Protein: Cobalt-precorrin-8 methylmutase
Amino acid sequence: MDYIRQPQAIEAKSFDIIGEIIRETRPDYQFASPLHEAIVKRVIHTTADFEWLDILWFSPDALARLTAALSRPCTLYTDTTMALSGINKPLLASFGGECCCYISDPRVVREAKAQGMTRSMAAVDIAVREEGEKVFVFGNAPTALFRLLELNVPVSGVVGVPVGFVGAAESKDALTHSALPAIAALGRKGGSNVAAAIVNAILYHLRDAK
Amino acid sequence: MDYIRQPQAIEAKSFDIIGEIIRETRPDYQFASPLHEAIVKRVIHTTADFEWLDILWFSPDALARLTAALSRPCTLYTDTTMALSGINKPLLASFGGECCCYISDPRVVREAKAQGMTRSMAAVDIAVREEGEKVFVFGNAPTALFRLLELNVPVSGVVGVPVGFVGAAESKDALTHSALPAIAALGRKGGSNVAAAIVNAILYHLRDAK
Structure:
């Protein structure tokens, strides 16, 4: 069989095709900046879904705040191990950052049971008590995002893209009405893969700007 | 804020909503079996994308072969750590199965470099040399799926849903023309989250049938 076998060539060609499709189908579509373009295209690369052109929302300060946070030591807290898996952790570490997911932490399991909340919520409670600069990355759990908004603590950024049918759209709508620096998916769509793609797009942008 | 905080209640309500939307928007849509319905609905639950009603392809023997394999000791080989993360490994283990991803295995890194192939391809080469019953789970790498088809070895099942713009659709089309027991995503869509959702739907079906 004849097929491209070089990962870099596959990725470059993929982004070329995505750009061509956008130019053909949405000739009037405008990206706000190269980083905005990189994020939207990487999410489309991850999902093969061009609806992402229209459903990815950015607070005015989101890109400035997230690039600043990721370019220096900070901790990314994910709601799922899938999002944790998808994030380019060596590249994050090259900027001094680290990434963790507390969903299976014994403290979280205990606290969730004691308080009758989801483990995703208890994981947020534990994360906000830690020292240091924080970015929250939610691809799956609306309850995690609701909890973060309830706690009303300062954070350096939120990637808020829980997917689903119960609370997902509502949680993201609440995020867009908060004062937090955030990227959010409007409506039901989202996912751990989308969350990781957004983080990686920012990391690749920072790497290429070095 | 007022929102549902019980994970089981959230999931049950999500599936109810998905069923309602299908009945309203696609009143003539027929599921082939309860397991077919469980798989399609779980993929929609994971993606919030109803296009999955039309793009998930099953070989005639796919469900019988995959349920048989997953109900006894077998090894699932995933192309990404994200798919590995998403699979319910304790439940898989309760049937004697295990799951692994060789993408970062030193042998894979070495062999990919030596042979000028992707690590995803080298991971397949190493997996097929192992003993025991095998199921391949591909959510990301068309080259892995192409490689498996080239090697032409017997496997108990393939979940073939690589996402993307270069080779993804072609690799899945080739899978649907092979003799392998397979579930495939037609076109560009797919993903590690979709791959894990398909495996989990089968595992939950087996658990509930116990």
Observations:
- Strands of chain B lie at 56-58, 75-78, 98-100, 134-138, 157-160, 182-185.
